[in-house]
Automatic annotation (TrEMBL):
Domain tRNA-guanine(15) transglycosylase-like per the UniProt entry, residue ranges: 10-373
Species of the source: Jutongia huaianensis
Bilayer-spanning residue ranges: none
Subunit structure: Homodimer. Within each dimer, one monomer is responsible for RNA recognition and catalysis, while the other monomer binds to the replacement base PreQ1.
Protein name: Queuine tRNA-ribosyltransferase
Active site per UniProt: 89 (proton acceptor), 271 (nucleophile)
Sequence positions that bind Zn(2+): 309, 311, 314, 340
Pfam assignment, any one: TGT
Binding annotation for substrate: 89-93, 143, 194, 221
Biological pathway: tRNA modification; tRNA-queuosine biosynthesis
Amino acid sequence: MYKVLCKDGRAKRARLETVHGTVETPVFMNVGTIGAIKGAVSTRDLEEIETQIMLCNTYHLHVRPGDDVVYDMGGIRKFAVWDRPVLTDSGGFQVFSLAGLRKIKEEGVYFNSHIDGHRIFMGPEESMQIQSHLASTIAMAFDECPPHPATRKYMQDSVDRTTRWLERCQKEMKRLNGLEETLNPHQLLFGINQGGTFQDIRIEHAKRISEMNLDGYALGGLAVGETHAEMYDVIEKTIDYLPEDKPTYLMGVGTPQNILESVERGVDFFDCVYPARNGRHGHAYTNHGKLNLFNAKYERDDRPLDEDCGCPVCRRYSRAYIRHLLKAKEMLGLRCMVTHNLWFYNHLMEEIREAIEQGCFQEYKKKKLESMEELK
């Protein structure tokens, strides 16, 4: 059950009760593509840095180790030793990212595995079956994430097909949740709004899928090449046509600035690889901007990554030491950076929730954006 607790302008402070636990929103979902966060960060670490929900990838887990293996091991939560909610994406993004290895048809998508090249077929029913095997808390509907830019005709045809696929997803999930052997018969289904930067297509699609009374709704096909201004405009124009009493998820976004701007427009679920990926490349998010630990000026810097940070890394290690680890290609350096960045994102969301509750989100956002520009 999803409940909006309070609002500050369009910004929502809400709570999603699931069979696997409660999610306080706005929330950032840490990306564990194959059931783990890249950078040697364990699920115990995720609990320590107050992660609420983990996102895993349907396509990648299907390819390796195989969703049948995960099913036999009791589902992704038991397999990864994670007792909190999990959202699985549908494999639809791979329709976009593996464009050179796939062919789209009405029945679904034919892939060549990025690992060994073997032929894979995934349609709406297959995606739901795989996600049911994974036993995630929230399953995403199978869709196409169209490229940017795309012609109007391509976009309209793609969105119409995504709608037909959504109807098939909803029907198949209902069937799967009724089976005795299903690990999570309470699995939730989120639909995905598409349409690129064509606002009328976006709005019409939002209206159509809102009528289906799904458990949540996502804005997909953004952060794929359009400008930030275009993305914010799409969010602002589309979100009013999605149910306010259901979670709204902006897929694959983004920077702290992106999150603050999108919360202001009514989004309350986010995911992005940035904190982990940038951390592995030596970039630390701080309350004063982003640090590049490979810069020579940090070689003898005995301060923590962020002097205002309470994460386990900043309570213990210096910039100089972490820089040394990164230069030496020591795994501990990656682990420190990813842990800090994920803590920063989770704490950012906590601050956002508090600001909305106190009715001062606009003031908080302004100060936060100004402070994060200090290092530039």
